[in-house]
Amino acid sequence: MTATAAGDDTTRTTTTDRTPADDDATTHVVTRPAARRALALCRLLLAGVFLWPVADKTFGLGYATPAERAWVTGSSPTAGYLGSIESPLAAGFATLSGPAVDWLFMLGMLGTGLALLLGIGLRVAAVAGGLLMLSLWASVWPFAAGSQNPVVDQHLVYVALLAALALTRAGDTWGLGRAWAASPVPGSAGWLR
Predict the structure, then answer these.
(1) Are 29 and 36 in contact (CB under 8 A)?
(2) Has residue 9 got a pLDDT over 50?
(3) What residues does 3 pair with on adjacent strands?
(4) Residue 170 domain-assigned?
(5) 35, part of any domain
(6) Which of 24, 113, 161, 184 satisfies CB 3.0 to 4.6 Å to 51 for a cystine?
(7) What is the pLDDT of residue 28?
(8) Element housing 125 (H / E)
(9) Count of domains forming the chain
(10) Domain span including residue 126
(11) How far apart, in whole angstroms, are the C-alpha atoms of residue 4 and residue 16?
């Protein structure tokens, strides 16, 4: 049974009229064009959050990383940050500094950023990017006196946004999400969507 209110362009289906097809994951995504475009814009902006540090740390563009400390000159993209942490976890994070963590961090940021930019593999990107952001959140120790917000900071907002983008198929709008889903790469593996 569907009901439409006068002057309302939405259709509501009652739970008693649901069919097995209604429980299919493809029917529970954002369907309003404006909302899909807003999610796509959020996806593209978040791609910049992940891709910019990769470019700056790799080539020393002079923003957070001066040219002489660029990764291409042999400097570590993580040593400066990990060595400057002032929190109860500082010693633990300082021990992580090294080539393996440099590569893991940079590839994680690059892979997450490219997945967001292209709109493919958003579920994997949400997990990888979420783990990166949670580790950065823990490194800044927001519970310390003088922090801007001891409850929520931008890292946690990025984690929530990554999850929302992955779960709403935000890559289908202004991205390659539909083509990716139809290709043999993800196939029936929904987690690669």
Answers:
(1) no
(2) no
(3) 12
(4) yes
(5) no
(6) 113
(7) 61
(8) helix 122-140
(9) 1
(10) 52-192
(11) 16
